[in-house]
Amino acid sequence: MKQRGWFWLIFLILVVGLLAVLATRFNVAVLLADRRAMLEPILGTVGFVVILASFIILFVRLTQEMRLNQLQSEFLAAVTHELKTPIATLELSSSLLRQTDLSPTEQDQLWKSHELELGRLRSEVEALLEAARWDAKAVRSKRIEIDLEKWLNERIGAWRELLGPGATIVREGDALPGKILADPKMLDLVCTNLVENAKKFAKGKPKVTLRTSYSGTRWSVVFRDEGLGFEPAESKKIFKRFYRAKHSAPYSISGTGLGLYLAREAGKRMGIAIAAASAGPNLGASFELSGKATG
């Protein structure tokens, strides 16, 4: 939709330019033939160009509205699917738990399923609420000095648990001797979203490589996975609100398109740059966090 909109916009601009050139040549010819008759064709040309410019502006606005409507429809479909699934599972497990002939093992499995789906539902609702808060500019960072090396080593265990059984996460690269100014909760939100992204788009058991580098006062942390990846042209688009990579249909992979958006917004408020890269679909993806150390 967006590419077609730009095509027609450029086409209309070229048409206006061509007509303006032709009209100018016509006006010059009239001027040379009869100077007193110059005003009428010039006014006609100006009026014609204004009308065409109005049509172009109208077309651009219409294209933007169509794109917005498409995004809203995709978002509503994704959210509906994401919320209906855990609710249906919770209803089923609740009805089964009412039965009195369940063994202790069966009850334990149902309670675990119950807790898992409650956690999933809570995460989705919190993501929606967070997105609304960020849009309203109601979130402020409370930055403090953090020992990044120590913080990463403490969090790796939690990320490994988040990735699930059989997953691997390894650390490579330089030690990070410097400290950074960051909001611990926001920094955790950014990194956790990147790890969850690696889990969501994994082709099998998630594999994440955490590569760190330090040069002068600049630090970098790269989260590299071996999952589905994305088109190189989407490296900036995937941080947009509600955007889903083309290869991941709304119903094939869970998500609302808010995780990376929230990560980028949190990074902005802390002065941390976030960049994404992928060689293409099924070739994995990498997300780099970088910034300046305080010393």
Kindly summarize this structure in a few lines.
By secondary structure, the chain is an alpha+beta fold. It has six helices and seven strands; from the N terminus they run H-H-H-E-H-E-E-H-E-E-H-E-E. It folds into two domains: 1-138; 144-292, Heat Shock Protein 90 (2-Layer Sandwich), CATH 3.30.565.10.
Structure characterization notes:
This protein has 295 residues and is an alpha+beta fold. It folds into 2 domains: 1-138; 144-292, Histidine kinase-like ATPase, C-terminal domain (Heat Shock Protein 90, 2-Layer Sandwich), CATH 3.30.565.10. The protein is built from 6 helices and 7 strands. The protein has helices at residues 2-33, 39-97, 104-135, 148-163, 184-200, 259-270, and strands at 144-147, 168-173, 179-182, 207-215, 218-225, 273-277, 285-292. A 5-stranded mixed beta sheet has the order 2-4-5-7-6. A two-stranded antiparallel sheet has the order 1-3. A hairpin with a 7-residue loop joins strand 6 and strand 7. The chain is globular and about 85 Å long. The two termini are 48 Å apart. The mean pLDDT is 76.
Topology:
Blueprint: H1 2-33, H2 39-97, H3 104-135, E1 144-147, H4 148-163, E2 168-173, E3 179-182, H5 184-200, E4 207-215, E5 218-225, H6 259-270, E6 273-277, E7 285-292
Parallel strand pairs: 2-4
Antiparallel strand pairs: 1-3, 4-5, 5-7, 6-7
Labels describing this entry:
2 domains; 57% helix; two-stranded antiparallel sheet; Heat Shock Protein 90; 6 helices; 295 residues; 5-stranded mixed β-sheet; alpha+beta
